[in-house]
Write a structure and sequence with these properties.
With about 700 residues, this protein is α+β, with helices and mostly antiparallel strands. It has 4 domains: about 110 residues, no CATH class; about 160 residues, no CATH class; about 140 residues, no CATH class; about 150 residues, Nucleotidyltransferase, domain 5 (2-Layer Sandwich), CATH 3.30.420.10. The protein is built from 24 helices and 16 strands. The chain has a 6-stranded mixed beta sheet with strand order 15-14-11-12-13-16.
Length: about 700
């Protein structure tokens, strides 16, 4: 067999699999170039390359150059092809070294190390999507490679600054990749992050089926069914293996939104929004059935055939189906990402969902203090120290001894007791004097585990106290290290003064300009937030929605006031539907816009205020919302176009209390209450808003 395989007839994937003729035709519209260091280049291959070059059967150039230090006995082979043919399809018995792949000299070219291609900049976006992206492939051991990279990252993080000292890995990468709100540092799990990135390909296949890449892969791998039902198949390409793996990892996060019901198989596909799995319950009644959802809708009426649904589904499934509102405007069924507010898949949302599915439960105590640590107004090095304290990874001598480090375990400050967390930070004479100097005293006799005590303190105490506690703890450890490593001793008063001076200087440098919005360590605005009257001649309409857990109803409340804060009108209504909070808020805005027209206020300037930021963003955004609420959002946009003087704004929940209280006034389902004066039950709230 020839040392160089023929380029004619078909192209090969990076794993040597044959590409379909259709893919070859598409790929030949573009120009690819690549360069590799190649080891063990035999003389036979050398001669064959030269013969092919002279015959102009393929444009190949190779030169000998000085090898890099990490690659020995190499040559450089430059290949320019009309199709993305991997080098291994040209050379037999040739070993490629991954370290030897280097960037092409072609201006604007792009290197994709995983596929070993360098794609010329003139290639279109769709072909780049086909070739250049990383692939998480079960056959390529990407999970093992990710674990190895995470091990290296972990070693780097915990490595000591001392030469030759690799340090102690106090926590695994899985623990450090937990979200900060759950006790981690928010690093990314590499395998999961790669899955989330590949999820973008899955999303593009489902939302942009007419693109070049979508048509190419559909023709090859799922010509007769939807992408979510695609199988890996035999002799699958390297890239498809990765995309298919991502689809399987993420598929439980996708669901169908009902349109015409012509694409959804009722007993197979995830489409029941009211159920956790979005699917019907497992039942022998459903075996062998493949009815489409459209068969359960009365033709030309856009209503459920209730008796037919109850006859063919178990009670729980029938109730979930009948709770779904059929859109009155006929549109196609579509797949959405269930874990986002607009149904659009993003890598960030995909990673969060994947991580919660894989590592949702943790042995770390789920206390709000974890999140508050990172909002404290203290230097970042102190935050890292407090995090380590709460994770029991402060290198006190007893912990070091347990890790196999040979050293004296007595406290270096008092030389009397074993150095452990409770002793060095609370029981040692130096520590007690530090606490006394800042007028803080805690009874630690009943405390068995100091990290849990501190985490509870961070969660429950006031901001001022938490900052003082963290500063004292960091100061004790800082001056203890001065004693250990520099043999310097300080009296506790001076030590604490120096620690608090560090915090004070940091806060002064970080202080924002006057007038800027300040937030405390809970993420809340540091000023009293209350309703403000509009300008003279402008009316303000506040609206809020209330969704009752376990009930298939929600209520809406709204109040209209003028520039003096006078109560002009109020209204609440309760609607029968099972909706999310965002949907209820959007429906509330739509009802408020309709109410403006009912009261003939089209010519008046009206400010509509809601405490749902997602609602305001959805109505003002030009991007499409893929969820069921899209029809309501479009209706709001249309009404705003007709009400030229009406505007919509976001306010904080504390400034929307009157509308919130009106929404919670009892009201029968599908009925409404109108108020011409403030209801007695919310007089206090109403007067608080207008009090100067």
């Amino acid at each position: 067999m020839s040392a160089l395989k023929s380029l004619e007839g078909c192209a090969m994937t990076p794993q040597g699999r044959t590409m379909s003729p259709r893919m070859v035709d598409i790929a030949r519209e573009y120009h690819f170039s690549c360069r590799f260091y190649v080891t063990n280049l035999s003389s036979e291959v050398d001669e064959e390359v030269g013969r092919r070059k002279k015959a102009e059967e393929v444009r190949i150039e190779h030169t000998t150059r000085e090898s890099p230090q990490h690659v020995t006995g190499t040559k450089v082979l430059e290949v320019n092809l009309e199709a993305p043919i991997h080098l291994s399809t040209l050379l037999e018995d040739v070993e490629l070294t991954a370290e030897g792949v280097e960037t092409s000299e072609v201006t604007g070219s792009y290197i994709a190390p995983i596929s070993n291609y360098i794609l010329h900049a003139e290639a279109g976006d769709e072909v780049q999507q086909l070739v250049q992206n990383p692939v998480a492939n079960e056959e390529s051991n990407d999970g093992e490679e990710a674990n190895e990279l995470e091990r290296l990252f972990n070693n780097f993080w915990w490595r000591s600054s001392s030469a030759g000292n690799r340090g102690i890995n106090w926590h695994s990468w899985n623990n450090m990749s937990l979200p900060k709100s759950k006790g981690g540092l928010g690093f990314r799990n590499l395998y999961g992050f790669n899955i989330a990135l590949l999820g973008k390909h899955c999303w593009n296949f489902m939302t942009n089926p007419d693109s070049l890449v979508s048509r190419l892969y559909r023709a090859r791998y799922f010509p007769n069914f939807h992408f979510l039902q695609a199988v890996r198949g035999n002799d699958a390409s390297f890239i498809w293996n990765g995309i298919w793996t991502a689809k399987e990892e993420l598929r439980r996060g996708f669901r169908w939104v009902l349109g015409d019901g012509e694409s959804i198989v009722a007993v197979r596909d995830p489409w029941l929004r009211g159920k956790e799995t979005f699917c019907v319950e497992s039942s022998h009644r459903y075996e062998g059935r493949n009815e489409l959802v459209s068969e359960f809708i009365i033709p030309n009426s856009r209503q459920w055939n209730i008796s037919y649904v109850q006859e063919h589904f178990v009670e729980e499934d029938a109730r979930a189906i009948l709770a779904i509102t059929i859109p009155q405007q006929v549109r196609h069924d579509r797949v959405v990402w269930a874990a986002s507010s607009n149904g659009v898949y993003t890598a960030r949302a995909g990673y969060r969902w994947w991580y919660d599915q894989m590592f949702g439960t943790s042995s770390i105590p789920q206390i709000n203090g974890w999140k508050r640590i990172w909002r404290l107004q203290i230097p970042h090095k102190m935050k890292i120290f407090i995090w380590r304290f709460c994770r029991n990874s402060v290198p006190v001598r007893r912990r070091l001894n347990a890790k196999g480090v040979t050293l004296p375990i007595t406290c270096p400050m008092c030389l009397h007791d074993i150095e452990h967390l409770l002793h060095v930070f609370f029981q040692c004479n130096f520590a007690r004097q530090c606490w006394d100097h800042v007028n803080l005293s805690y009874d630690m006799r009943a405390v068995e585990f100091a990290p849990y005590w501190l985490l509870s303190k961070v969660n429950d105490a006031s901001s001022e106290e938490v900052v003082k506690v963290c500063t004292v703890l960091w100061g004790i450890w800082y001056w203890r290290n001065k004693k250990v490593w520099e043999d310097k001793s300080f009296i506790p008063a001076l030590a604490m003064d120096g620690s608090f001076s560090t915090v004070s200087e940091w806060q002064k440098a970080r202080r924002k300009k006057p007038g800027a919005i300040q937030k405390d360590d809970q993420g809340q605005v540091n000023k009293e937030c209350r309703w403000s009257p509009p300008e003279e001649g402008v009316l303000k309409l506040n609206v809020d929605a209330s969704v009752f857990a376990g009930a298939e109803t929600f209520s809406i409340g709204m109040v209209l006031r003028d520039h003096l804060g006078s109560f002009l009108a109020g209204k609440n209504l309760r609607l029968f539907a099972s909706v999310s909070v965002v949907e209820a808020e959007v429906v509330g805005v739509r009802e408020a816009l309709s109410w403006i027209k009912d009261m003939h206020l089209q010519s008046k300037r009206v400010m509509i205020e809601t405490d749902s930021l997602l609602t305001v963003q959805a109505i003002k955004s030009k991007e499409q919302n893929y969820l069921e609420v899209e029809a309501v959002i479009d209706d709001c946009k249309l009404q705003l176009q007709h009400l030229m003087e009406a505007t919509i704004h976001f306010i904080r929940k504390q400034a929307n209390r009157v509308a919130h209280e009106i929404a919670r006034i009892p009201c029968l389902a599908n009925c409404q209450n109108l108020f011409t004066s403030p209801p007695t039950c919310l007089l206090e709230t109403f007067l608080f808003d207008i009090r100067k």
